[in-house]
Structures are given as C-alpha cells and as structure tokens.
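Exercise 3.2. Students should predict the tertiary structure of the chain below and write it as structure tokens, then compare their answer with the key that follows.

Predict this chain's 3D structure.
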Amino acid sequence: MKLKILLLTVCFALYVLPAIAQQKTTTLEELFVDVIDKSNRYEEYKVVKIYKLNNLKKNVEDSIASIKKDLENAQGTIALQKSKIDTLTQSMSSLQTELNTSIENQDGINLFGALINKTIYKITMWGIIGLLVLVVLYLLFKFKNSNVITKAAKLKLTETDEEFETHRQQALEREQQLRRKLQDEIIKNKNA
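Answer key:
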C-alpha cells in the first residue's frame, strides 16, 4: 500500500510540477490581471495581498532590467553597425575615387606628362599624319615637276652641246680651209 501511495505521489508530482513551471512564465499583463482579479473588495477599494504586490514589483523590475539590458545591447549593436557603415562608406568613397582615376587613365594617354583623352589624341595624331601625307604628296609633285623640267633642260643642253660641237667642227674646218687658202695665197704670192 505504501508503494502505491508513493507511486501516486511521484506521478502527481511529475504531472503537477510542469504545470507549476509553466505558470511562472506569465506576462506582466497576466500578473496585473491576476492581482486585480484575485484581490478583495473593501467598499470602493481593492485589497491586495502584499506578497502579490511584491511579486508583481519584482517581475516589473526584472522586466525593466531585461528591457534595459536589451536596449543597451541594441544600442551597442547599432553603434558597432554604424561604425562599420562609416568604415564601409569611407572605403567605398576611396574605391570610387580609385575607380574614377583608373577610368580616366584608361580613357586617356599620358603624353609629355599631361593626360590627354584618347579621342582627342587620335584626332590630333590622324590630323598630323594627314598633314604630313599632304606635305609629302606636295613635295613629290614638286619633285616630279622639277624632275621633268630638269630632264627637259638636260635634253636641251645635250642638243645644244651637239649643235655647239657640230658648229665648232664646222668652224674648225672652215678655219682650216681658210688657213690653207691663206697659206696657198702666201705661197703663191712668194712665188709670184
């Protein structure tokens, strides 16, 4: 019989203790309702038992302390996240500056210490190349024109040289004939 009582007591304790433990996790609102509803009335006043008030006070203080602790933790987390955001913002702005500098360097050419846009550089270089081609074509035209004039002048010089040589030969032959005639006349005048 004692065994049955002991067994029933253990079963009852196992069944009732979890229910009691669940009751301890009540909210403040439930505690206020419990204090107000289970208090006695005296005329228009409520008579509240001291232990219930003390229990309610303790729970309110615990809740306030817990909320303050959560608030401090949240503020610490916010401050940490704000510092991370500031660090990331500074890092992002420096990376943006580096990116802009890199894009400028990629879109430009460093010429004599000055950064020039690639498009302007290309237009300038092609303009200079075009101008040089035009100068070369002009000089080539002038050279060919001068070459034609020089060839014509050389041809005329050659013709003039040939004419002069022919004229000189003829003048030499005439002079030789005149000298012979003169010599013949001198000889004839000496003999006569």
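Discussion points: The helical segments are 2-24, 28-37, 50-107, 118-191. The chain is about 85% helix and 5% strand.
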